[in-house]
Give the backbone structure.
Amino acid sequence: MKRDLISINDLDRADIERYLHLAAVVEGLPREHRLSLLRGFILLEMFFEPSTRTKLSFEAAMRRLGGDVMGFADVSSTSVKKGETFLDTVKTVENYADVLVIRHSQEGAARLAAQASRLPVLNAGDGTNQHPSQTLLDLYTIQRFFGRVEGLRICLAGDLKYSRTVFSLLKTLMMFPGNEFVLCSPEALRVPDYLKYDEDGHRLSFVETDDLAAAVAHCDVLYMTRIQRERFGDVLEYERVKDVFVLDAAMLRHARPHMKVMHPLPRVREIALDVDATPHAGYFEQVANGMTMRQAILLEALGVSP
Ligand code: CP
């Protein structure tokens, strides 16, 4: 069976623990051994939407495991521009590689590709739907900071309506016991109602607030998100909320000493630059962990044990 990574909802707790363990193992390997693991394998990236971290960290992960990378990030340089369909593109490029990484603006695009392709497909973000490698790297980062992913107070803040990373992270952290959640956002950017219930119709347990200062004082992890301008149908609606939530160093004076600020990045205005110099800033370590977790994801997808 091929090993796609399409949605965090396809994984159970044991799967997630396996990825966390694999990332830790990869991180501890000697460089020479790591460089031999995926020699001869090719990763093909199809990025129909912009990306810095996801694209480059998958590339770095593949190269640091000894593999090769090819692909496109500018659709206008491909035959899609001439009218070639998404599925024909997938069925074409799968002949050149061993694993596909796809980012697309349409929800469900990665799943569609996985159904059509004989190669493992890794979802690098499909619209507002899923970004599973981001969720796994977020969990790995929490594990690195706290030595565990349970028994934590987690505040998810900012754009909770359009942020695909928030939905996935919330659901995943709920698999682990003792986690408590505060969802902090302007009224207009609250988590959509349909995401507030599990598959059995039970309401998920969390507190909703728009008081960021109070939430900052009581959490172990403050997970900030960008207001996603590109997802707003109405620019005026974006203008109304864009500067409502800005975290600065002064707001962190009442934070717990060990509290970590995370962010999937890119940030726009929501974390002031003076936060970077505080011991709470965790988002660049999160970036570094992203490459490690994506090494684990590639090994898992290609069925290679370290
Ligand atoms: N976090 C994240 O997905 O960043 P990019 O959009 O730069 O890949």
Q: What stands out?
A: Residues 243 and 269 are 7 Å apart (CA to CA). DSSP finds ten helices and nine strands in the chain. The longest helix spans residues 283-302.
